[in-house]
Amino acid sequence: MIYPLKSAKSAFKNIMIDSIDWKILKELQENARISFAELGRRVGLTTPAVIERVRKMEDAKIIKGYAAEIDTAKVGLPITAFIRMSISGVDYSRIIEVVENSKEVLECHRGTGNDSFIMKVAVANVEHLQNLIDKLVPYGITTTSIVLSSPVKSRVISNE
Q1: Could you tell me if residue 98 is inside a domain?
Q2: Is the model's pLDDT at 2 over the cut of 90?
Q3: Global confidence as pTM
Q4: Strand partners, 143
Q5: How many domains is the chain partitioned into structurally?
Q6: Is residue 38 in a domain?
Q7: H or E, element range at 101
Q8: DSSP H helical ranges for the chain
Q9: Are residue 139 and residue 85 in the same domain, yes or no?
Q10: CA distance 86 to 71
Q11: Which listed residue, 53, 98, 106, 126, has the most CB atoms within 10 A of its CB?
C-alpha cells in the first residue's frame, strides 16, 4: 500500500502534515478516546496546541470521525462474509439503494475489474446470509466468501 509522503500536502485546504500531526493521527487511531492532555504529553505539545492541530485536521477532513469498534459476534451477528457482485447494463442506483437499505452490509465499495461491488456483511447465520444474497441476485452475479479469521483486522495508517 502506498502512503502519503511526510511532506505531502493534503488535498483539503492545502494543509501540510508534519511529523507531529502524524504522531497525533497514530495515537488517535490507536485510541480515539485519549484525552487531549494525554495526547499532548505523548506527542510533546501543550493541550491547547494539540487541540488546535486536531481541530485543523478535522476541519480539513483528514480526521473524518470517531467510532466505536463493535464485536459483531457479541451482538448476534457471528458470521462475516464478503459478497462480490458483477453487474453489467444495470442501473447502479438500484443496487446501491438495496445495499444502503440492508443493515447487514457493513461496507460497500464500487470498483473496477470483474467485481462491480464488494461488500462486507455481518449476519446471524447461513440462512440470514442466503436471504441477503437473494435480495442482491436480481441485480447481478454474486460470489460470496465467508471469513474464517482476520489476522489483520485493521491497521494504523502512519508515515513510518
Answers
A1: yes
A2: no
A3: 0.81
A4: 84
A5: 2
A6: yes
A7: none
A8: 19-30, 36-43, 47-59, 92-100, 126-136
A9: yes
A10: 29
A11: 53
pLDDT-based confidence at residue 127 (cuts at 50, 70, 90) = very high
Identify the bridge partners of residue 83 per DSSP, sorted by sequence position: 119, 144
Is residue 142 classed as helix, strand or coil in its secondary structure?
A: strand
Cell of 50: 494539540
Task: Please indicate, yes or no, whether residues 79 and 60 belong to a single structural domain of this protein.
Answer: no
Report if residue 157 sits inside a domain: no
Starting at the earlier edge strand, list the strands of the sheet with 105-110. 105-110, 117-123, 79-86, 141-146
Could you tell me the three cell numbers for 84?
462480490
Of the candidates 15, 49, 68, which is a domain's last residue? 68
- What is the spatial distance between Cα 110 and Cα 46, in angstroms, rounded to a whole number? 42
Residue after which a domain boundary falls, among 14, 39, 68: 68
Segment (H or E) for 78: none
CATH of the domain at 79: 3.30.70.920
Per-residue pLDDT of 86-120, as tens digits, reads 988 778 899 999 999 999 999 999 999 899 999 99
Residues 145, 82 contacting (CB under 8 angstroms): yes
Provide the grid cell at 78: 457471528
* Structural domain that includes position 123: 72-146
Interatomic CA distance for residues 84 and 99, integer angstroms: 12
For residues 120 and 99, give the distance between their C-alpha atoms in angstroms, rounded to a whole number.
Answer: 11
Cell of 154: 485493521
60 and 44, same structural domain?
yes
